Amino acid sequence: MKTRITEMLGIEHPIIQGGMHHVGFAEMAAAVSNAGGLGIITGLTQPSAKDLAKEIARCNDMTDKPFGVNITFLPILKDPDYPGYVQAVIDGGVKIVETAGNNPQQWLPILKENGVRVIHKCTSVRHALKAQKIGCDAVSVDGFECGGHPGEDDIPNMILLPRAADMLDIPFVASGGMADARSLVASLAMGADGMNMGTRFIATKEAPVHDNVKKAILEASELDTRLIMRPLRNTERVLTNTAVERLLEKEKNLGADLQFTDIIDEVAGVYPRIMSEGDMDAGAWSCGMVAGLIDDIPTCAELVDRIMREAEQLIRERLEGFL
Ligand SMILES: Cc1cc2nc3c(=O)[nH]c(=O)nc-3n(C[C@H](O)[C@H](O)[C@H](O)COP(=O)(O)O)c2cc1C
What we know:
By secondary structure, this protein is an alpha/beta fold.
């Protein structure tokens, strides 16, 4: 399947694995890229720029296909070493960056000078248009369904994607709630040039996380995610667990007085305990409603091949059959 995204990124299939904290290690990115999609290493999961450089080198050893690096610009006061992370991307020969969070404008000149394509992930049409205006090459449009940070507008993809298609000139991929061939074909029908998946890729054989995490996704239904940190305007969709229920209770009790420090135990530094140790009640971790559509743990190649095979069947048999 050829789309503007496969052509731009030099990949076989229009499927991207979004950056995921403490999931997007070299093993994950290489497995997706080797399957013909675009794997992405999560920059900030690496404690330093030097560590990111090593992770990129490891990924280069595991695949000769293109892969990307996610750089998330967090809404916090003390910035991580962004110049160092960006330099590690450039020095490592990585040609694709997924940015997310705050506006990536200040990093575009140096990335572009070094031939790096920038896909900005955003949750609204106005942010997508801004990304286009400042010179991003593509956007990833993340609907309200998504695991992670859906923004504060709460627009699901059935509305957001056609709106993005109407407004954007640059290519975009659909993100949030994507799991299978139906997701891909629907995204293409709504004007996207491919899709980005997060939660679905965690439930794969190669995802370098504890089996308990994969099991939790398989067991979850579409009813099992919660939105946290809405009062702080930093909404995150997470899988419910005892820590999340405790956090929501605090949000309810404190109302408008809620401060980040009130919920720090449930959110700060919990990812390694969940993703590596499999302590599923250690805190809040991002997970999409799409968990309700996930009931197996294939390899990345099996998953991607199945999506592409079934997408073709859907188009040729089901859709053309209506004509
Ligand atoms: C466990 C997890 C961690 C994530 N961490 C990040 C991150 O660090 N940076 C980022 O830009 N997006 C992050 N995301 C969002 C994904 O890249 C992607 O946009 C999202 O998962 C898409 O929704 P889906 O889960 O319904 O497929 C994360 C998602 C999950 C599930």
